[in-house]
Write a structure and sequence with these properties.
Helices cover 46% and strands 15% of the residues. The chain is built from ten helices and seven strands. α1 links the parallel β2 and β3. α2 crosses α3 and α5 crosses α6. It starts with 5 loop residues before the first strand and ends with a helix.
């Protein structure tokens, strides 16, 4: 398996940062700047995104295998946004020894429970987006950000989105369409911080509430002034929440 391209910064406990379907590793730039003073931050381009190779296995399991290789057996605190949160859950499900804790922001839990015709319509829509991200990135970024987001924030989200490639984008789309993570949740008994932008119009509070209800050790934080990308829209608040959660989790580990 060819290794993923990874942005690296800092020293300390390992924090693995996983991006969403319409994004890439560079979307974590503001978090790398804020967290590198305390943590070793690893932000991979997922298979088929940015500077990473195309996926060798076009499945969620294939994505998870590539992500697991990034940490090389060193347990990490895993932070995921949107599909990145689903990937974090899948990593914890199959490689629990690699996941110390999870920050699950504006998560998707998959679309397998949807009626098949709705799921196929969603996939067709995504296929159209996959080949038009370069021209529709600003339009899509405006749907992802909070309704009152500044133009500069929308353009930043769009810039990271344009690093996605159709192969990677559709691999992730199919993984979302084929997955229902809800049955996994009660079995993932590690500390979890569930984050939701207060104006997330993509997945929204209902998914965050499902995580809070089903994960055995979950707490919730709502970030004001953010939509579906709080790590970009409200970077200081997001980084503060991650730092506090990871440091408190590490203290609990020290006392065990």
């Amino acid at each position: 398996m060819k290794p993923l391209h990874v942005l690296r910064a800092g020293r300390g406990p390992t924090v693995l940062l996983l991006h969403g379907i319409g994004s890439s590793a560079t979307a974590w730039s503001k978090q790398l700047e804020r967290l590198a003073s305390d943590f070793t931050c690893l932000a991979p381009d997922l298979p088929g995104y940015g500077n990473s190779p195309d996926p060798e296995s076009a499945t969620l399991d294939g994505i998870v295998a590539a992500v697991a290789d990034v940490v090389r057996g060193v347990p990490a605190h895993v932070v995921g946004v949107s599909f990145g949160a689903l990937a974090a859950l899948a990593l914890a499900r199959s490689h629990l020894e690699l996941v110390k804790s999870m920050v699950l922001s504006d998560a998707t839990l998959g679309r397998a429970p949807m009626p098949s015709d709705e799921r196929e319509a969603w996939l067709r829509h995504r296929e159209g987006l996959a080949h038009e991200l370069a021209t529709r990135s600003v339009e899509r970024a405006a749907e992802i950000a909070a309704r009152n987001a500044p133009a500069a924030v929308i353009e930043e989200i769009a810039t990271h989105m344009r690093r996605a490639r159709p192969t990677g984008y559709m691999t992730v789309a199919r993984a979302i369409a084929q997955t229902d993570a809800r049955p996994w949740l009660r079995h993932i008994a590690i500390p979890a911080l569930v984050v939701c932008g207060e104006d997330d119009r993509v997945t929204g509070m209902s998914v965050s509430q499902a995580l809070l209800d089903e994960l055995p050790h979950a707490t919730l934080m709502v970030i004001a002034g953010a939509g579906h990308a709080p790590h970009i829209e409200q970077p200081d608040n997001f980084a503060q929440a991650v730092r506090k959660f990871v440091q408190e989790t590490a203290k609990l580990d020290d006392h065990r």
